[in-house]
Amino acid sequence: MDSALLKVDEEKARHVKRVKLRELNATMDVQVELSRLDSSLKRHTGLIKRMRQSLGTDHRDQIIKDIDSLSLEKYIDEIAGATLEGIARCKTEKDVWSAVEVISALHRRFPAAFTPPLISSLSTALAAPSRAALSALPPEQREKEDSARVSRQRPLLRVCSELALVGIITDGRKRSGGEWIMKVLRELLSNDPTLSSLPLLSIFLKSYSRPYLGLTPPQSKQISAEAEPGTLSSAITNATQGEFPTLLHEGEELVEQEIRDRFKRMCEGYFDSVSKKLTIEHKRLQDQDRRNHEAYIRSGEIFEDRQQAYEKMTKGYEKLLASCQTLSELLYLPMPSLPTVSQKSDSIQIGANAISGDDEDPLANSGGKWEDEEERRFFEDIQDLKDFVPKSVLGIESDEKEDKEVAEEREKAEKEKADAEAKKLEEELEGLKLDGDPVNGRKDGTAEVEMREKEPDGTITPTPTSPAKASSPPLSPQLAPQGPSQLLTALLARLPDATNRVMIDQAAIDFAFLNSKAARKRLIKFLGTVPKNRTDLLPHYARFVATLNRYMPDIGAELVALLDEEFRYLQRKKNVVKELAEVRLKNMLYLSNLTKFCVVPSHLVLHMFKVCLDDFSGTNVENISMLLEGCGRFLLRSDETRERFGTMLELMRRKQSMQHFDQRQILLLENAYYQCNPPERTPRQLKERAPLELFIRHLIYDVLAKKTIDKVLKLLRKLDWDDPIVQRALHKVFTKPWKIKYGNINLLAMLTYDLQRYHPAFAISVVDQVLEDIRRGLEQNVYSTNQRRVAAIKYLGELYIYRLLGSVLVFDTLWSLVTFGHPEGHPLPRQPCPMDMPNDFFRVRLVCVLLDTVGMCFDRGTQKRKLDNFLVFFQYYVLCKEDLPMDVDFMLSDSIEAIRPKMTMYKTVEEAAVAVDDMFNAALQNAGLSTGEDSGEDSDEEGERPQQQDEEDDDTTGQESSNEDRTPSPDPVIVLSTQEHLGPSEEAEAEFEKELAKIITDSSAESRKVDKKAAWWDSAVLAPNLRKKRADEADVDAGGDNNPDGNSVMQFTVITKRGSKQQGRHLLVPAESALAVHTRSAQLQDKVEQQHLKRLVLDYEQREEAEEMKALEVRNRVGAIKIRYVG
């Protein structure tokens, strides 16, 4: 109550301001002395610039001051344009009123020079957009254009509404501008099939419903559902006026009573149309939801395009619902009742014999008349011409009068009720007709109430329209100066190109305006002479005939008679088989499509079927097959023809079993029969799963996405991992990557990596199962599992990227893909292999998928050499196949170019074989050098063993050794382990111990003071010159020399001291002596320990760095960024 009274007070304050400004504008007594006005260019330019920026409250005082002090005569046009730009920047109510005051000041000074061009510019800016221009734009661009237009026109409409109230925009002398505003709004709403101009009406009603419509806030917003849209607002207004003090007397109103009533009826009619549109969209949304549910039951998933269409439809419905609710609140009208359809489980048919819940015929339970929803819409959703064409053109007024007279004779009570409703409806129609704007001079006004827009999906969009805009299609052909004959010729020339539903429906509307007896004859002749090779036109021509047949029945009857005569002629020419085969096909297809549109009488098509069945041989077998394929399903499931056509089908099956047909005819008949009457199938048995398993599958298959991976991980961790049922369900889901979207496989691998921290055994089992699936695929090589194999290979690569397995397994898999199943693991050119035939290129695809996934990781160190070696052998493997298909060739070239863009590509098998031999020879020769040399700089993040290359080279050496057409490999180099040379033998060790004990026993007292833990040869300190000399000769000391006698010796340095000066003397000791052997052993042990300490330090640093990288990766995972760090 308080809020309503507050609104009334605010409205009174606005009314007082408008009345004062209106009186001021009406006096026009502006006295200006021209001599005192400033005419400087600088001040005029500043004023225009300031007006372009905004006419709001910030610049109001300065602008009005300049208007009163400047001459302005020479700049009227520029000021009018600047005013239009400044209005567009007025956002608030204060800014709008400021702009009105500025315009009023200019109006009072220049009523003839300024006001008319400004009003003309405002009218142009508020004009409705061109439909042709909008229809040419794509939907996204059209939506952007509508949004920009609405935001541009919103402040203009508010300012114009105020100008009409203050006497600047007028409909005539001593009249307000209400008619002008109503005309602008009508044009905007009538030319808006997408309802994009609804926000403009809402903005207008929020601020100006009281002065233009006479609406005042009700005491309560509880509105009865029984109230009708045409009378509710007036009733509420009357009730409100009883509760509140009278706001204004009629003499104080700024808009005439007649205009207010017409304006209110127009808005209520528009709300009624929007309500109908909302109801239609609500039903469409429910139908689409039901179809999505059925599709989900049938296929187990909802395809992405269907899901996107549903989301788009939902978004549009919610937007329309919000707009309708806003209008309902502003007009104080009740919302329409939206039907709620409960989805029953028996409405979803699974299989052919699903139980529908009612006592229908079993034939109907196996499927409806139509194969899918699209076919049903094509044959059943036919437009009604009276929605687009005047009744006088269709000639149906006399028929309606006759029907009304018959109804009056039958029941007078019904007549009186119908007359009362008709009178009421006529009054509402007459009220809306008064709003018409006879710009184009059209006399027919039957389409003034609402405009029905046919959208691409076949739904109707009702919006109020003006008489100038009657319907979605034009009411008459655009080439008006031409005669009917030329227009009909152009229409018939367009028909062969009308290959969709929208074009053929438009052609039917165009023909309705050219309707005459001569035109119908020409049309029938044209439709009866369709080229025999254009059978694709027949369904559309049948729809064209069905659309016209409702109001021009002679078209359908004469065309059916023409086709019947052609059928009889073909029956007489049964012996002419090849020459008339295409004519028979066209005749049967034409009749079948017309039958499904109910243009051909059922008795006629059944008679044709009986004629062909009586002579069940030759061309009649093909005729029956085409009839069954064309309209057999429709006839068998229609209530009118079900029994008779079912009997004929049984008779046909009996004759087929008794007569002898060739294989082609038998195949034709069987296919046609089962197409119109498919066999009964048992419903697909759904696998029963525990609720917990269903929850896990829902998380992985439905919920898992980049934005939800953390949520899924938390929910999975909360499961009872000790429960074997949970473990089995998780193992199934995580080891079947082919059941999720291909783009989500990396997310599944990321989840496995995250779970590996808490359940390492689970991650190991997943990797084992994936490797086993890849191996099984290589062994079985079944075509139906190819998609699974691609997903498994992709999954394996993603598991490597997330460090769940090492590069050893990746390279093992790569080599297995190119060698498994071949004799001795050696592919031979063009040689058949049961598991990998030369014309089977699927393994090439698998290798490319794996290379695309992990190839970029092998770009340095040992892994780079391994991948280079594999790519050489992979080229040889590819060349052993037959010529690659184009798609596989492109896939291969793209994969290699991505990881090795400069790699040499071999053209022949011989070149590749030589390269493979060279690669293996180089690998064998470098095998000894590579062992033990790979330090931490070459090891990747998994810490794999450096001997991996040697093991793979040793394996592949045996594969290549049997190739007889290539040069033999050199003798294998035997590489002994370096551990054998790290110390002396056991005998030398025992001898050394004995000598050492003897030296210790015979040493002096000073020698016993020496720390026995330190070796005596390391206790002495060398002089700097000796140390440098010894460092220079370290290689000689470590490796040993050969003396002139040819014996291997080791060089020692004996330190002597004379006074305070140290001297060194070289001593050659035989390498076989205990001292030399022990010294060598100690040196090697020190070197090994040094290397070990170095590796420990490097590993410690790498672990710390890996932990930092891992923490950074966890932080970045929220943004779904996959980061791989190479140490």
Automatic annotation (TrEMBL):
It comes from Suillus placidus. It comes from the Eukaryota. One of its GO terms (biological process) is nuclear-transcribed mRNA catabolic process, nonsense-mediated decay. GO terms for cellular component: cytoplasm; exon-exon junction complex. Keywords: Cytoplasm. Residues 485-679, 694-902 form the MIF4G domain. One of its GO terms (molecular function) is RNA binding. Residues 401-457 have a biased composition (Basic and acidic residues). It is found in: Cytoplasm. Residues 353-372, 399-482, 928-974 are annotated as: Disordered. This is ARM repeat-containing protein. Residues 934-957 have a biased composition (Acidic residues). Residues 461-482 have a biased composition (Low complexity). SMART domains: MIF4G.
